[in-house]
Structure formats: C-alpha cells, structure tokens
Amino acid sequence: MAELKAQNVSVVYETARGALTALRDVSVSVRSGEIVVALGASGCGKSTLLSVLAGFQTPTSGTVAKDDVVVTGPDASRGVVFQDDALMPWLNVIENVSLGLRLRGAGRAERVARAAEVLELVKLGGFEQHRLNEISGGMRQRVGLARALAADPAFLLMDEPLGALDALTRERMQSLLLEVWNKTSTGVFLITHSVEEAVLLATELLILSPRPGRVVARHRLDFSRRYAQGESLRSIRSDPAFIQIHLELLDQLVRETEGA
C-alpha cells in the first residue's frame, strides 16, 4: 500500500512585513484507497499543504515522504488537478491528456492508447479529437482529471477542482471522482471550501485552523465508501447522520474562524 506522508510540516514565508507562518506542525498521511480532504477558511494554508505534498514547495521544517523516501520535487507518482484546468488551448482533448506522457518520451502509440483508456474512465470516450472550445467547463475538468491519471499516479492531489462549476455539474463531477477512485484505488488528497463536499468525499476529513494552519480535528467518515458500494448520492445526502455531521462541522468552522 502506497503512502504519502507529511510529518510536522511548517511553512514560513519571509515578507516585507516580516515572517508569515502559513502552516505550523501539520502531519497528514494519504494511503492508497483513501480520500483525505482538508477543509478550512480561506488563508488557512490548504493550498500550501497541497503544494508541499506535490513537491512544488519545500517545507521550512518537517518532512514529506512517499513510501519513506523523502520528496524533493514533483514526480509522476503524484498527479495534480487544479481549480483552473490549466489545459493547453491549442491542443485537442487527446493531445492534452497525453501531453505528460509525450514530455517523458513515450511513443505515439503508447500515448494514444493510454489517453484513450483514461478518457473512457472519465466518460469522455468519443471526444478525443474535440478542441477545448467545443466542450463544456465540466468536460474540461474531466480532461484535466484524465491528464493527471494518464501517468497512472499512486496519488491524486486536487486543489479545489470543482469550485468553479455550477451545482449540477459539480454533483456529477463528485460522482465521477468517486467512481474513478473506486476503480483505481488511487490515494486522493483534496482541498475544498465546501463542507458538504468534504463530508461526502472524505474517508478522512481534516479541519485546519485559520492561519497559521494547524490540524485541529480529524474525522473518519464512510459516506464515500457507501457510494462506492452502490448507495445513491440522494440517499446519502438525506441520511440524518450526514446532515448532522455537516451541521456540526459548519459550527466548528464558524467557531474556529471567530476565535482566530
């Protein structure tokens, strides 16, 4: 079982006004087949934590390791999906999905076969040759997800990937993400501002305090696994247990923010 682990991570930025601590002593572990969701107010360091896990940023103190090997930079074992899909507008769908494979020197036949496979996984089979201006925003997000999956990563790191979508498209993308996760057993680290989304998706939910970000609560949840076992999203969302934890977490976030 693969594991991506941050231990006692702190991140301090030097600014013109002095040192700014974004994260303080944060520990998190993401394992294969888990969805770890970080939830907290704007500015609590969620994106900084994802950047550290991705290897884009070195922590000021603490360590990040994949399977006990210290992370020193980004690599193909950790796919990243951003809120802005960051696609190349001059490339078509399959060219965008296979871009990372091309940059690593994979042959054309291998690239096309793998890209077609993951496009089927995210339900975009038949759209391989479409230009980006010919598909919807939700479809573009699926292309971004397919691109991250093309390298068969052990982990997906997702920075508010559904935040810009309308409510209906967001719900469909939540379903798709859970289906992909269930089929691949990829470990997922996702950040969001939506309490409902966090409760729905997380197998482990982390609550971060306002800056400096610290993990102030951890919750083990099973709603995502219930969906993977065949229960509908409507049934899950109407479950009194789902409603209760949703309201409790809203109250906790309000208290954390007011106490900052």
UniProtKB/TrEMBL annotation:
SUPFAM superfamilies: P-loop containing nucleoside triphosphate hydrolases. Pfam families: ABC_tran. InterPro entries: AAA+_ATPase, ABC_transporter-like_ATP-bd, ABC_transporter-like_CS, ABC_transporter_ATP-bind, P-loop_NTPase. Keywords: ATP-binding, Cell inner membrane, Cell membrane, Hydrolase, Membrane, Nucleotide-binding, Translocase, Transport. Residues 4-235 form the ABC transporter domain. Gene3D superfamilies: P-loop containing nucleotide triphosphate hydrolases. GO terms for molecular function: ATP binding; ATP hydrolysis activity. It comes from the Bacteria. Its EC number is 3.6.3.36. Belongs to the ABC transporter superfamily. This is Taurine transporter ATP-binding subunit. It comes from Trinickia symbiotica. The gene is tauB.
